[in-house]
Amino acid sequence: MKLTLEVWRQPSTNAQGTWERHELDGLEPAMSILEMLDALNEQLIAQGKEQVAFESDCREGICGACGLTVNGLPHGPENNLPACHQRLRHFKDGDTVRIEPLRSASYPVVRDLIVDRSALDRVVIAGGTVAVNAGTAPDADTQLINHEKLELAMDFAACIGCGACVAACPNGAAHLYVGSKLAHLSMLPVPRQERDQRAKAMVTAAESSFGPCSNYGECAKVCPENIPLSAVAAVNKERMLSGLRRQVKTGA
């Protein structure tokens, strides 16, 4: 299988980026996008040229590090799969494949296909404080959780933070990501104690780095963990409930 690759090259955040064109032969349809980039780097090394920088870790669809854009689509042509699981069988022999970083104003390019996604980390850090009584761990059955609610909480907890949802959104919104965290933690008894404080802090952090949500739905199409679109609603829901509860407490 032969493909023509157009790869984005950018040596640093403030440098001017450009496209490089490469021909790759001997590829297999079962190879992943990342394995194709491995093959490209092997070819570049043999030619004495600089390798293409890209991120990867587990290559099992768990870590979320492999986010990049393939022919304008975050991760690649197949919905709900990370780049490390996108296979070359979706392309035809002789096709041109354009590989670039995840594109968003909140993701500055570090080098080539690597972007800085620390804006996502800042959202989690903002809601990461927990104030609970220290001491001996409670028995497992002292705080009962409804099975259906637990399963739903785990569905939201599946988010791996790849950031593709932001790149797919025309507004650069992170509501699917933020909502998955808020919805997950609001359903469990211990983290629920910080529910109002967490909602206010995380939404404020998100609004400082990401755009507003207009319910386009592209985020759910690219999410590797199939986070339901209902997570988007959790952002405004949790923010509204935290405000209402503060009013009740203060008697406003």
Automatic annotation (TrEMBL):
Pfam family, one: Fer2_3
Start and end residues of each 4Fe-4S ferredoxin-type domain: 150-179
GO MF: 2 iron, 2 sulfur cluster binding; 3 iron, 4 sulfur cluster binding; 4 iron, 4 sulfur cluster binding; electron transfer activity; metal ion binding; succinate dehydrogenase (quinone) activity
Keyword annotations: 2Fe-2S, 3Fe-4S, 4Fe-4S, Iron, Iron-sulfur, Metal-binding, Oxidoreductase, Tricarboxylic acid cycle
Cofactor: [3Fe-4S] cluster; [2Fe-2S] cluster; [4Fe-4S] cluster
Keyword hit for Oxidoreductase: yes
GO BP terms, alphabetized: respiratory electron transport chain; tricarboxylic acid cycle
InterPro entries from the UniProt entry: 2Fe-2S_ferredoxin-like_sf, 2Fe2S_fd_BS, 4Fe4S_Fe-S-bd, 4Fe4S_Fe_S_CS, Beta-grasp_dom_sf, Helical_ferredxn, SDH/FRD_Iron-Sulfur, Succ_DH/fum_Rdtase_Fe-S
EC number annotated for this UniProt entry: 1.3.5.1
TM ranges: none
PANTHER family: SUCCINATE DEHYDROGENASE, SUCCINATE DEHYDROGENASE IRON-SULFUR PROTEIN
Similarity comment: Belongs to the succinate dehydrogenase/fumarate reductase iron-sulfur protein family.
The protein's name in its UniProt record: succinate dehydrogenase
Source organism of this protein record: Ancrocorticia populi
